[in-house]
Amino acid sequence: MLNKLTTDTVNWIVIIGIVLLGFNFFLFEPELIFMFMFLGLLIYIGRKRNHTLIGKMCFWIGAVFLIFLISSMMVVQFAIGAALILFLRYYANTKKHPPKWEPSFYEGDSLEEPLLKTTPLLQHKFLGDQVTSEAGYKWHDVNIQGGFGDRILDLSNTVLPEDVFISIRHVVGNIEIYVPYEVEVSVHHSAMFGNVGLLGEVSRKITNQTIAYHTPLYYEKKPRIKIITSTISGDIEVKRL
């Protein structure tokens, strides 16, 4: 069913959902904004202190109440109802016009060039921390987005190519990246709130800002690493290791 939806249809669904969510927050239930912020803070504190009993309690209290809060929203109930109607309509259409599947055959020499599948180093993860392996691993460029938790990348346990690209878009949480001494680095970071520490040379607090730094020989020497990150709230630290 989902694979029959076009990109434009999905985009319209997302836009309508955002508009309805905005109406729900600002016209009907504005107090929910503060509830979401409070529960998000509880979950974040719980993740940061998950080794303590208080941290675990904060996390689970925030998560459970967040689920109940989301399920009680008028927009979510409307979306569930609309999804059920679409499912029933799809089911009725398939009963009237069952889909016909035909096998597809591809000749081995029909492809102009072969494509090799690679396994991403890190995956999209809405909740929880992500850390690269402490053992040696094969490098693949990083392009991920996440919700809550920390992201830690240690580039000292892999062999880097001449050009390395790292892109991390995150909501709440810290980003730590450890790079070897012989590698040139470029950092482009934006955040609503957070602290920035870069190679022991830059240490500052930013509020709703975008910053960009690079080492003096970044455009002349290789290997080099281009780091692009963005967060709503969180620190970024790039260290030599």
From TrEMBL:
Residue ranges crossing the lipid bilayer per the database entry: 12-45, 57-90
One GO location term (cellular component): membrane
Keywords: Membrane, Transmembrane, Transmembrane helix
Domain Cell wall-active antibiotics response LiaF-like C-terminal: 126-238
A Pfam family annotated for this UniProt entry: LiaF-like_C
Protein name: Cell wall-active antibiotics response protein
Species of provenance: Pontibacillus litoralis JSM 072002
Lineage: Bacteria, Bacillati, Bacillota, Bacilli, Bacillales
